[in-house]
Amino acid sequence: MQKKEMKKESKKGQIYNLNDNIKTHPALKTQFTFGQRAADAVATFCGSWKFIIMVLTYIAIWITLNLTGFILSWDPWPFIILNLTLSCLAALQAPVILMSQNRAAERDRINQKYDYQVNRKAEREILKVKKELETIKSYLYKNLKEIKEK
Fold first, then answer.
1. Which listed residue, of 31, 44, 121, 144, carries a Cα 20 to 30 Å from 11's Cα?
2. pLDDT above 50 (res 127)
3. What is the three-class DSSP state of 1?
4. What pTM was estimated for this model as a whole?
């Protein structure tokens, strides 16, 4: 997913990108290995409608060719070879998809921890501003009383 480009003009007329100021956790900036990128690509493709439709089409063609091919019926009715190929596909897909999900879960944990730290900092800053506003408010009330007394 692409980040939305947000630009703002400074007081001096310079345009700068607001996304440059957003800090990300160093673990999220790491380069993935070929295997990790491949696992993510496989998980993305296998979780799509395109893949589901392709597998269903493959199964339908396999069954149709074997039921109508009286002479060259290479996999008769219980379709043992088809069952074997689908089992192998599932056996190979499962660990790859789990690797991708584990990496996504780790990224989510890091993001959650980082968001928590940002929220705590924001809370402290809000409390600081609230305290300053209370100080200003008490100062204004004090001065208002002095003005009324005159």
1. 121
2. yes
3. coil
4. 0.57
